[in-house]
Structure formats: C-alpha cells, structure tokens
Amino acid sequence: MPQTTEAQHPRVEATYKAREVEGVLDLYFYRPIGLRLARFFERFKMTPAGVTWLAGLFGVLAGHLYYYRDLRINIVGMAFHVCANALDNADGQLARLTHRESREGRVIDSIADHLGFLSVYVHLTLRYLAESSSPVICLLALAAGISHALQGAAADYYRSTYLYFVANRARPGLDSASALQSDYQELSWRFKPWNKLLLALYLNFTRQQEMLAPHLKKLRDITSQLFRGQIPSWFETRYRNLVSPTFSRFTISGSNSSRLIYCSSI
Fold first, then answer.
1. No. of H helices and E strands in the chain?
2. What is the pLDDT of residues 129-144, one digit of tens each?
3. Percent of the chain beyond pLDDT 90?
4. Which CATH number fits domain 9-265: 3.30.200.20, 3.40.50.2300, 1.20.120.1760, 1.10.10.10?
5. Is residue 247 a contact partner of residue 192, using CB atoms and an 8 Å limit?
6. CA-to-CA distance for 100 and 47, rounded, in angstroms?
7. Using CA atoms, how far apart are residues 120 and 78, in angstroms rounded to an integer?
8. Between helices 71-97 and 48-65, what is the axis angle to 10°?
9. Where are the domains of the chain?
10. Is-contact 169 159, C-beta < 8 A?
11. Highest mean pLDDT among 43-52, 100-109, 244-253
C-alpha cells in the first residue's frame, strides 16, 4: 500500500503548474480529484477544451441556483460550484498529462471562468432586486465584477511569468500584445472565424495585463531580448526568492477562495 501511494505522488505533482503557485485547496483537495477526473476523461478520449466547457456549464448553473431564496437549492448550487472547480482543475491536468497545452485552451479556460463568475454576479444581483433592494446593488455588482476581472488578470500575469522564469512549466515563450497583434492580423474572419475570435479575446486580455503591470511587462521584454528563452540559473534563483512570498496572497485571493466566500455568504 505505501508503494502505491508513493507511486501516485509524482503523478499528481506532474500535473501541478508549480507547487508554490497552487492554493491549499488545490493541493489537498482539487488537484487529487482533478487527477482522477483527468484520467477518466483521458480513457474516453475527451479533449481538455471539452472538459473546460463542461466546467463552465456547471459554473453557470451554480450561479443560477443562487438566485433562489431556498437553502436546499443554494446547497445544490454550491455542490455544482465544487464540481465546476474540480473540472476546472481537471482540464489543465488533462492537458498536461496528454501534452496538449495550447493557447486556444488557455483562452477557452478564461472564457469558461468568466461565464461562471458572471452568472454568479448576475443572479445574485437579480435575487436582491427581486426582494425590492435598491438599484444601487447593480452598481456594486458591476464594481465587484470589474474588480474581480482585473484581479484575476493581474494574478494570471504574475503567475505565468513566474512559471516561465522559474518553474519551466510555461509555454515556449511569453505572449506579448505586440506579438499577438501580428498573429491576429494574419488570421482571416472568413476562413478561421473561431480562431480569430479567440485570439481577439486573448489579445484584449493580454493588453489589460500589460496595463495593470507595466513594470513586469518591461522586465519580460528585457529578459526576452537578453536571454532568448534561456533563463540563467542566477536569474531564476533571484526571481524565485523575490517573488515567491507574494504567491501566498495570490492563492488566498484565487478562484477557489472566492467561490468559498460566495458559498458562505449566501
């Protein structure tokens, strides 16, 4: 039995982005469940994108179930949210297990996440309005949604940079708005409308990230020019020592923690 457990640990860890950027809930709950789901979907030849859309569906349904002032229905919504988050972990783990990580998958994952959280904000706002609350709640929900989106974009930018500089688990290169703009212009709405739409969304997302963290963008640009993708060990060590402490705050404010707060406040 101990041998089986030991054999499984490297397999689970192989599906991490990097241990230091994973939240506590991810490490001890969602990642083990996500790995089992990833193996299940792998047997049925399901793509990571298919799992992502399934996660998005559960997230949207969960948000809808928060509309009702019935604790039993709300609990079902919470269960759906847990399923959505488990599937959201499983899609990335499946991509890493099957070596099918891609820019398209990254964009689809972001879309599914945003749809789930949008459903939560919209249905909670409608719930308050149905109970004759002040229309000011719409402004509060809008501000919360914008804040949530900006926080998620910034956290993702810092996380992807860390993975590239330190963990060697990122894409072959760092995406920049200028490079994405060039790729976007090469695609045709007539022949590849879906790919162009996804790239348009990703380009906009990347521009937001660069505006939110201009100094980090400058660092990425400089290192790309200096190192050409070959990050030296001294830089890796220095960056890890400086940045690692900040991830404790990012993981606390991550999507899993946010969903936990939603559930406790309903």
1. 13, 0
2. 998 888 899 999 999 9
3. 49
4. 1.20.120.1760
5. no
6. 9
7. 11
8. 170
9. 9-265
10. no
11. 43-52
Closest to 171 measured CA to CA, from 17, 5, 56: 17
* Residue 132 structure tokens: 């004759």
Across 34-39, average pLDDT:
91
- Please give the pLDDT value at position 19: 74
Q: Are 85 and 255 in contact (CB under 8 A)?
A: yes
- Cβ neighbours, 10 Å, residue 115: 16
Instruction: Extract the tokens encoding 21.
Output: 């950027």
Q: What is the pTM of this model?
A: 0.82
Q: How far apart are CA 70 and CA 248, in angstroms?
A: 35
- Of the two residues 135 and 247, the one the predictor is more confident about is 135
pLDDT at position 166 is: 85
* Coarse DSSP helix, strand, coil percentages of the chain, rounded to the nearest 5 percent: 80, 0, 20
